[in-house]
Amino acid sequence: MEWKTLVDQLFTSEHDVQREGELLRGTGQLNGQSIAIVGTTDHAAIGVELALAQARVVLDTVSRHPGRPILLLVDTQGQRLRHRDELLGINRYMAHLGCCIEFARLSGHRVIGLVYDQALSGGFITSGLIADACYALPDAEIRVMRLPAMARVTKLDEGRLEELSKSNPVFAPGVRNYVAMGGIRSLWEGDLQSALVLALAESPLHDERAADGAVRGGRTLAASVIDRVSWS
Amino acid sequence: MNRSFAESTARERIEHLFDAGSFTEILGPSERVMSPHLAQLGVPASFDDGVVVGRAVLGGRSVLVAAQEGEFMGGGVGEVHGAKLVGLFRLALRERPAAVLVLAESGGVRLHEANAGLIAVSEVMRALLDARQAGIPVLMLIGGANGCFGGMGLIARCADHVVMSDIARLAMSGPEVIESSHGVEEFDSKDRALVWRTTGGKHRFLSGDCDALVEDDIAAFRAEATAALGEGRPLSLESLEHEHALLAARIERCGDCSEPVEVWRRLGVIEPERVGDLDTAALRALRPAL
Amino acid sequence: MEKLHFEFKGNRSAGQFAPLLVGVVGSGNLEVLIEPQPSSGACAVDIMTSARGFGPIWEAVLRDFHDRHGLADVSVSINDMGATPAVVSLRLDQAAAQLGNAGARP
Questions:
Q1: How many domains does chain C have?
Q2: Residue B239: in which H helix or E strand, if any?
Q3: Does residue B290 sit in helix, strand or coil?
Q4: Which chain C residues touch B43 with a CB distance below 8 Å?
Q5: Which of A5, A72, A183, B155 is an S-S bond match for A178, by CB 3.0 to 4.6 Å?
């Protein structure tokens, strides 16, 4: 879905969200409440500048609008794959974005992630996945890496990976698998604005994703291993 | 006697870094908590899923430890591996150790477990930050031959304190991935000297992305880790604004650099071409002036 | 993956000891876990290996290992990623040596 269409639907056009390059930012009105919006579009490759720009929006929200909910709109092809970004320490820039989002959460801001198009790899870890909860549109795509690249790196047969990705949630790129594994709390279908209102009301404060993965059957071991270690 | 950190296994690193005989493992190999996903790919699982976690003593102080085994699946984080790390950080909230130390050696998400690994990495990140928020210092010790990449490279920079050896690497994407995306002119993954100038311990130390630089020696890591056992630094608006300003200034100052030597020149290193030849002591002497 | 199982009859019982682990599962390598298993002197060996079709070679290597050490009342569990017979023997001997150093009581 186009970011503009999405935001118009979420806020019945009561918003001032603009795009500046691949960055999205602005404020939306929902039932009399202001929501800060930040994210990316055009399957953005997250480089040092884009990570920093998003972090700026989050920090500004925390310092100027205490308690204001934050909506992260995710559409990324992952981290930018350039020598320059590695040289400058893209991992530190992305970690900084993640820490800013986490700090917002800890400071009482509800943070909701929404994958509205694509979410890959590192670009996803330090945005949607560090929110209170991350949601997705049914047609969105979430993956770690495309299958051909994965086959090259793992030296596994691409055909075998293709086959497995049809049946096994661990490999299959679909959003429904991420729901089954607890990574995505639920899909937003139908009335998007209602889904957002509900998400703001009921997203958890603590990380429940492993427990969700166990209940839903997509990740059967994570929750019990976490419990065994943390109660040892 | 020098004992190479890089050439040691995760268990050997633990054995020789912490106070003698002080390590007690949690969910050890005989518990057989293993990956449920690898067999279908014809890949053998490991009894500890490639990460050793437990309690230890460092200089008389109780700590929690995780050591990733770089030789198993490149240290990649899978479902169980990640859950052990999350559990360790949650345990820290209950036991309040002097620190949580992560001996990190990893390519990031274990691709063989793709989605489960990706989610796991984000769970580790949140659990680490929860521990920091509770005032527990988190130390990353990076010295393995495989480096610390991907999701673990992200996690490393969420910690309070990072120690690297000069042969270690810390980054997001590996040079091969960059080369296959944008060509050998973008990043020649076979140019080892360039790879280390770009992502190695010396560069990260000079740029400030690691707090301490040591020789490839377990005793040196031990000394730095012991010295770093201090107050935890929870996130604060002030610390995040400080970090933000630092990162913005870096882009201003060095954003148009394509060669690491040029970065070092702009940081104020007098003879930056010689950095490759300098030993860690000489580099440590250089940094305060920058 | 191939799963193999072998049993040998040992002489001196290893008694009680803390489980010990040697080696790492990496390319051309293996990990060996030895645990006490009271079994009237048996030495049970369980192998998970990514290299299929080498049953007879495993048997020969293990028989040689058994002739050297005669471990009894133990279970030996192995995860293997294509180690050569020489490396397998090395790891097994390392594990037996550690067992000896642990001062196992009969």
A1: 1
A2: helix B237-254
A3: coil
A4: 1, 50, 81
A5: A183
- Cβ of B45 and C79 within 8 Å? yes
- A50 shares contact with chain B (CB less than 8 Å): no
CATH classification of the domain holding C81: 3.30.230
Inter-chain residue contact C1 with B42, CB threshold 8 Å: yes
Q: State the count of interchain CB pairs (< 8 A) between A and B.
A: 240
Cα–Cα dist B49/B46, whole Å: 5
Q: Report CA-CA distances (Å) from B287 to B204, B257, B277.
A: 11, 20, 16
CATH for A3-204 is: 3.90.226.10
Q: Is C26 on the interface with B (CB under 8 A)?
A: yes
Please list every residue in chain A whose beta carbon sits closer than 8 Å to the beta carbon of residue B121: 125
pLDDT bin (cut points 50, 70, 90) of residue C104 is very low
Instruction: Check pLDDT > 60 for residue C105.
Output: no
Is position B179 within any domain?
Answer: no
Burial class (CB in 10 A: 0-12, 13-18, 19+), C15: middle
* Residue % of chain B over a pLDDT of 70: 100
Q: Is the ipTM of this complex over 0.95?
A: yes
